[in-house]
Amino acid sequence: MRFLLIEDNARLAEAVVDRLRLDGHVVDHAPDLDTAWHFTATTRYDLILLDIMLPDGDGRTFLSRNRDRQSKTPIIVLTARSEVSDRVGVLDLGADDYMVKPIDFSELEARCRAVLRRRGGESRNVLTLGDVGFDALSGTLKIAGQDVQLRARELRLFEVFAKAPGQIYSKTTLVDRLFSYDEDVSENAIEVYVGRLRRHLADTQVQITTVRGLGYKLEIV
C-alpha cells in the first residue's frame, strides 16, 4: 500500500514513516499543504494520514477540498484536539476516522487496516485466490496447508496483484506502488520481486504472468 502522511512535526513524521515502512508500506511525507497538493496531483494513494494544524493552512481545508473533488482515498485525521465537536467536525467533512495525539502506533496500524478493509468492502484480512490463501495482516501465503512468510516488498507486491486479479500492471506502475519518492530504484527491481513471488507460487493455481510489452498480471488457472 502507498500512504501519504501530511504532518509538520518532523520527529513525529519520522516515527510514523519508519513504523509504517516496517510493515512494508510505501510512505511519502508532506510537511505542508502545498507539498501535499503536489503529491496528490501526481500520485495515487491508498490512504492519507492528515494533521490539522499545518504551517501553511488548516488540514480541514485539504479534507474538504479533497472530498469536493470526489476523491475516494480514505483519510485518517491526526489531531491534538480531543473535544467531541472537533472530532464530529472532521467526520462531517469526510474523514474516514481520526486519532487524537499522542499516537499509539499499534492503534494507528489497526485503524489503517480497518479503514482500508471498509473501503474495500472486506470484513477480514484474509483473501482466497484459487488454492492460495493470503493474510495481509500477518504477511503470509497459505499454500498446501503450510504458511509461507513473505518479505515486506514481496507482501506489498502480492497485495497489489491480489486486489485486482487479471489487471495488468506496468513496471512503472509497480515501482510507483512499492517505492516512495526518496527511494532511487530501477524497474529491474520489479523483475526481482516478481521472480521471488513466482517461486513461492510454483505448483499452485495462482500465477503471475508476463504480458509482453505491457507488464504483469495475476491469474488463477
Put the structure in a nutshell.
By secondary structure, this protein is of the alpha/beta class. The chain has helices at 10-22, 33-42, 59-68, 84-92, 105-119, 152-163, 171-178, 188-201, and strands at residues 2-6, 26-30, 47-51, 53-54, 57-58, 75-79, 97-100, 126-129, 132-135, 140-143, 146-149, 206-211, 215-220. The chain is built from 8 helices and 13 strands.
What does this protein structure show overall?
- The chain is of the alpha/beta class.
- The chain folds into two domains: 2-119, Rossmann fold; 126-220, Arc Repressor Mutant, subunit A (Orthogonal Bundle).
- It contains eight helices and 13 strands.
- The chain has helices at 10-22, 33-42, 59-68, 84-92, 105-119, 152-163, 171-178, 188-201; strands at residues 2-6, 26-30, 47-51, 53-54, 57-58, 75-79, 97-100, 126-129, 132-135, 140-143, 146-149, 206-211, 215-220.
- A five-stranded parallel beta sheet has the order 2-1-3-6-7, with helices on both faces. Strands 8-9-10-11 form a four-stranded antiparallel beta sheet, with helices on one face. Strands 4-5 form a two-stranded antiparallel ribbon.
- α1 links the parallel β1 and β2.
- The longest helix has 15 residues, at 105-119.
- The protein is elongated, with a radius of gyration of 18 Å.
- The mean pLDDT is 89.
